Amino acid sequence: MRLTPRAPVRLARAIGPLLLAAAVAAPAVVATPVAAPSTSARTSAAEPDFPAYDSGYHNWTETVAEIMQAAADHPDIVKVFSIGKSYQGRDIWMAKVSDNVNTDEDEPEVLIDALHHAREHLTTEQALAILHWLSDDYGTDPTVTRLVDTRETFIVFALNPDGMRYDLTGDPFRAWRKNRQRTPSGTAIYTDLNRNYGYDWGCCGGSSANKSAETYRGPAPWSAPETRALRDFVNSRVINGVQQIRTHITLHTNGELILWPYGHTKTNVPRDMTVQDHDAFVALGRAMAARNGYTAEQSSDLYITDGDQIDWLYFQHRIFSFTFELYPTEKPTVWGDHYPDDSRIAAQTARNRSAILYLIDHADCPYAAVDAAAANRNCGPLYDDFELDRGWTRDPYGTDTATAGRWERGIPAPTSKSGPKQLAASSGQRALVTGAAAGSRPAANDLDGGRTTMRSRPVTLDADPAKVGQLSFYYLFAHAATSTSADLFRVQIEAQDGTRTTVFEQRGKPVDRDGAWTQVYLSIDAWAGQTVRVVVQAVDGGAGNLVEAGVDDVRIRR
After folding, report:
1. Cβ distance 250 to 113 under 8 Å?
2. Concatenated DSSP letters for 365-425?
């Protein structure tokens, strides 16, 4: 593995611009093809460099050349492209590693990124090591070969290239953390990129509004072009309502820690995280820590952070996102924390191989880290807890007649009339409900005026009936004593030819029915081998009835 060789790297300085030009000639995965960087201070021999005693580290020119060389050496499985520009105009390079690298296959995706913080140079070395594991060992290491064949792994090597270079202009370092962004007037601000993400930005004392502070969060979420570039890439991986990236590692130094969300709260399982997701985070984190000797814990156990990357990736996309705080353990000074001797690079990056490959492997089903039952529940062809918009369509046939309280994905406000009618979500904080708001009175925001329909995205079932699995869901159907059989809740399966079959139905009757989440299991073997959709309907069939319905945790299990 070419982790720290100097002779090839010095040669790379001469061939770097040629490799860059060759690489960008290939079509980009998510962005328009970029022009090759000019032979300027950004890519010339005058590039800021590490001192001779730390020459095992890659400076910016060497990093780019190393990435491009991997693509040149392994064109069938490595593709390099830019996801955007830094504040000073440098490309933020990403490598995709997969067996059919020029095709966007329906495979679990993994994202790995390095160097949010300029002085954390070991993270770039770790990212380069991962690239070499996956490319150089393909075809000889059975685990690597299987993962490259069945996953799409995306690696960012330096999210903060401007800061990376600037840190090397000190004597010999500046201990610089932030990017190099200024206001339009030229006033120095500089932003901590890992406090600039858009979820709970500046919420909780985990960042600073002081422009000179190391944890300055920027004037607004996403104010840094570097975080916007990564955001836009992640958003682009939502295909047909489903986020393709399943697991993620952001590389930082230091502390020898593996951290999972959330950083902005000390609560282990807040309302915007499900218990089963928390269990998977803990199981994944501890399994990786058992492989590299790190300590696994919730991010806020270290200290509170807000506007950070892993919180946003989980909240916004439900990606199982981890921070790796690399070698060494905590030291008395910033120099000890972030500038380990280059003789430690090979051993300390290799130390993480098993843990990182483990998370790449579990992109197929992160819940499998908990147990087989969790995998069977949550890793079938359909699982939707409605915490995200995963491609359901309201009134898909244009036949709905409801005038109020139509289906919506929201945070339901509990209501009560002669007992509970609308309830909080069965898991997490969101559910599919008929009018999430409580209204001025219990009947003010219920279902009124007729039928409301929601239809799922297409789901392809296994051709073997023994492997189709079950359809399961939680539902509630509540009404006042004025209800009749004209009120109803039903679930249907829509076949490929558009035929809809009712597989579950609950009708009203003239009694007061309180809301209660009830789980239902249904056989769908009859549709083996087909691409189907799940359809849910609720009907208020009378005048002035109080009717509430809800659906949560829809699964087609393994």
Report:
1. yes
2. -GGGGT-HHHHHHHSSSEEE-SSS--S-EESTTS----SBS-EEEE-PPP-BSSSB-S---
In total, the chain counts a number of residues equal to 558
C-alpha distances out from residue 300 to 216, 304, 474, Å: 18, 5, 32
CA 103 to CA 106: how far, in whole Å? 9
Q: How far apart are CA 183 and CA 178, in angstroms?
A: 14
The end-to-end CA distance of the chain, in Å, is 39
In the block, tokens 């952001």 appear at 250
Largest alpha-carbon pair distance within the chain? 85
| pLDDT > 70 fraction of the chain, expressed in percent and rounded | 92
Q: Give the chain's domains with CATH numbers.
A: 6-379 (3.40.630.10), 383-556 (2.60.120.200)
Phi-psi region of 391 (alpha: psi -120 to 50; beta: other; left: phi over 0): left
Please list the helix, strand and coil fractions of the chain in percent, rounded to the nearest 5, in that order. 30, 25, 50
Smallest CA-to-CA distance from 544 within 453, 402, 443 is with 443
* CB half-sphere exposure, 199, CA atoms < 13 A: 19
DSSP notation for 242-265 = EE-EEEEEEEEESSSEEEES-SS-
Question: How far is it, in rounded angstroms, from Cα 204 to Cα 220?
Answer: 15
For 402-437, the pLDDT digits (tens) are: 999 999 999 999 999 999 999 999 999 999 999 999
The Cα 164–Cα 58 span in angstroms is 10
Q: Which residues are catalytic?
A: 325
Q: Structure pTM?
A: 0.90
